[in-house]
Structures are given as C-alpha cells and as structure tokens.
Amino acid sequence: MGALMVIFSLQPKQRRKTTDSVEDELELSAVRHRPEGLEQLEAQTRFSRKELQILYRGFKNECPSGVVNEETFKDIYAQFFPQGDASTYAHFLFNAFDTDHNGSVSFEDFVMGLSILLRGSVQEKLNWAFNLYDINKDGYITKEEMLDIMKAIYDMMGKCTYPVLKEETPRQHVEVFFQKMDKNKDGVVTIDEFIDCCQNDENIMRSMHLFENVL
C-alpha cells in the first residue's frame, strides 16, 4: 500500500500565495476536460477546498489537458523509482484509478481514489486494494493475479531491496499469502476473504493509518 503514495508527486513543491479560489474556478473551466466544481468534489471526497486547490494545481502542472493517459502516468511514476522498472506496477495502478475504464484518469478519478487511500475507512481502503489486485475485475483474486502484482512491486523496487532478492522470492511470498487468504481452498480469494485476512494482520492494519494526515 505504501507504494501508492508516491502519486503525491503530483503536488507542487510550493504553493502560490497569489492564487485564490476564484482563479482556481477559472482554471477548472479552462482545461479541455472540465472537472467537477470544487464544491462538488469537496462534498464527494474527504478533502477540504484548500486541499483540492493544492492537488488541482499539481495535477494541472503535470496534465494541462485535465486528464492523464497511461503513458504519462507511467512516466510520472517512474521518476520516483529510477533504480527499478515501475512500468508494470504503474499499469495496474492506473487501471485502479481509471474507474470507468476509458483509458484516461481525470482529476475527479484521481482525487476520488486518493481520498479513499488517505482518508477512507479501513473497509474502503481494503476494497480499493482488492480492486487493484483483481486485475481482470471479475470479483476474485487468483494466485496468478497476486503474483503479477507482487512481481511488479519487486521490479519497481529494483536494487532497493536488501539482501538482493532471488528470482523465486515473489512466488514464495505469494504462496504464503494466498494460502492464508484462500480460507475455503477453492483456488480464488473473494473480497470477504481478502478483507477478513487483512483486518487480522497487524502489519497491514498499521500501514493503513500511515498516510492519513499527509496533506
């Protein structure tokens, strides 16, 4: 879950004090894809108006058209993992943000997902995580899907891991996790099995609260 947070790279490093809410509203209407108004997004997410303004400026700096396609998303994400290959994990992450599966992520898609990851309940965060692992969106996680995500994470971390991981390490980890989650041993993990297992894992629960006050 922690790797998801580098998406905060879309924030600007410094706020422009001269920009007020009126100008933000004008900027929102100027892009080719016009997102929902700030008031509506404030009602739909757990971000304040000021936080949404900060996030929008950063999003607009990276994506002037108002939407981001998968290649741009991968390029942004790769900047923060130069020691590895983040492209596959970024692909899976992009699909999780692209909730209507139209091949692009709008500002609304971005902040709705981010709101869940940073301010959502444990149940909401686990639902989001399940959707990430459920690659083909059929309502189940297979061992192959879990392995694909795990391999993507190890590829992304690259040389950061110590000691250097052996090639079979992702598969070994998946075997342990999958056996733990697949309670009825039917070869797939349902959302109920996934949530139940995660809620009983202290490490996972601790990680759920790490980023609640990032903004």
From TrEMBL:
<keyword id="KW-1003">Cell membrane</keyword>
<keyword id="KW-0813">Transport</keyword>
<dbReference type="GO" id="GO:1901379">
    <property type="term" value="P:regulation of potassium ion transmembrane transport"/>
</dbReference>
<keyword id="KW-0631">Potassium channel</keyword>
<dbReference type="GO" id="GO:0008076">
    <property type="term" value="C:voltage-gated potassium channel complex"/>
</dbReference>
<dbReference type="GO" id="GO:0005777">
    <property type="term" value="C:peroxisome"/>
</dbReference>
<comment type="similarity">
    <text>Belongs to the recoverin family.</text>
</comment>
<dbReference type="GO" id="GO:0005267">
    <property type="term" value="F:potassium channel activity"/>
</dbReference>
<dbReference type="Pfam" id="PF13499">
    <property type="entry name" value="EF-hand_7"/>
</dbReference>
<protein>
    <recommendedName>
        <fullName>Kv channel-interacting protein 4</fullName>
    </recommendedName>
</protein>
<keyword id="KW-0479">Metal-binding</keyword>
<keyword id="KW-0407">Ion channel</keyword>
<keyword id="KW-0106">Calcium</keyword>
<keyword id="KW-0851">Voltage-gated channel</keyword>
<keyword id="KW-0576">Peroxisome</keyword>
<dbReference type="Pfam" id="PF13833">
    <property type="entry name" value="EF-hand_8"/>
</dbReference>
<keyword id="KW-0963">Cytoplasm</keyword>
<keyword id="KW-0406">Ion transport</keyword>
<feature type="domain" description="EF-hand">
    <location>
        <begin position="121"/>
        <end position="156"/>
    </location>
</feature>
<keyword id="KW-0597">Phosphoprotein</keyword>
<keyword id="KW-0677">Repeat</keyword>
<dbReference type="InterPro" id="IPR018247">
    <property type="entry name" value="EF_Hand_1_Ca_BS"/>
</dbReference>
<keyword id="KW-0472">Membrane</keyword>
<dbReference type="InterPro" id="IPR002048">
    <property type="entry name" value="EF_hand_dom"/>
</dbReference>
<keyword id="KW-0633">Potassium transport</keyword>
<keyword id="KW-0630">Potassium</keyword>
<feature type="domain" description="EF-hand">
    <location>
        <begin position="85"/>
        <end position="120"/>
    </location>
</feature>
<dbReference type="GO" id="GO:0015459">
    <property type="term" value="F:potassium channel regulator activity"/>
</dbReference>
<feature type="domain" description="EF-hand">
    <location>
        <begin position="169"/>
        <end position="204"/>
    </location>
</feature>
<dbReference type="GO" id="GO:0005509">
    <property type="term" value="F:calcium ion binding"/>
</dbReference>
<dbReference type="InterPro" id="IPR011992">
    <property type="entry name" value="EF-hand-dom_pair"/>
</dbReference>
<dbReference type="InterPro" id="IPR028846">
    <property type="entry name" value="Recoverin"/>
</dbReference>
